[in-house]
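Comment on the following before class.
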Amino acid sequence: MDQTQRIALGSVVVGLLVLGLKSAAYLLTGSVALYSDAAESVVNVAAACAAFVAVRVAAAPPDREHPYGHHKAEYISAVVEGALIIIAAFAIFNEAWSAFRSPRPVDLTPLGVGANVLASMINAAWCWVLFSRGRALRSPALVADGRHLLSDVVSSAGVLVGIGAAVAFGQAWLDPAIACLVALNVLWSGAQLVRSSVGGLMDEAADDRQIARIRTTISETAEGALEAHDLRTRLAGRLTFVDFHLVVPGDMRVSAAHDICDRIERALHAMDSDMIVTIHVEPDDKAKHAGIVVL
């Protein structure tokens, strides 16, 4: 089991612990807002399980049916997580509407509040782990889980403030109102997660900064070639696929052209070891006099 899988499995354990604490907080207080917090934690557990399965599938080596590997499984997990988040938001709206129609008293016990605060602190710490390690390991599934937990931490803080106000001012309607605000935040988080994950499934290109670095590296290491053009990139989990056309003198030997390609590939791999490079060599009559100028 690699590091990405261990962190994903850790998310399942943390999710179950936080779910237990937030459920206890809801049962001790009877707050609909805390119910919304606990409902979101149910989704956290389901999403963490989906992420764990996805990173295990993504770690499988290429095979006959999947010669480019299984890395996009992480994007599928992120889309599933986004859909679950959206479902949780509507479940919270439903519970809040019931509370609006039949207001319930809130018992703000220290034990209940303490359980919720402890759960939020655990979530905040694990959120930092997911963001830092997910970005370092270039794992869309871990980063998606981190984004979800971040929205959960923000929601939990708002919930505590809201139910405190409801009890302090004796306004029972504030409890379900805060639950609705939590649901809106959850809904926005889920929609953003689905949008970003679909981009990966649709072969989204690398960001402008990485493309600029790729162009510079090709320009500086393609000595002997004339130009490079039609550069394309696409992301698949932690991998970045790069392909382009390299124009060389028409009378250059194949072995010499191959040496240039090897030099470019080594430089790109030094920049990013998870880069898959494909170079199409062309004679000088195919030059477009545009694209990447070789220094």
Q: What stands out?
A: The helical segments are 3-29, 32-58, 73-101, 110-136, 140-169, 174-201, 208-221, 254-271. The domain at 3-201 is CATH 1.20.1510.10 (Alpha-lytic protease prodomain-like).
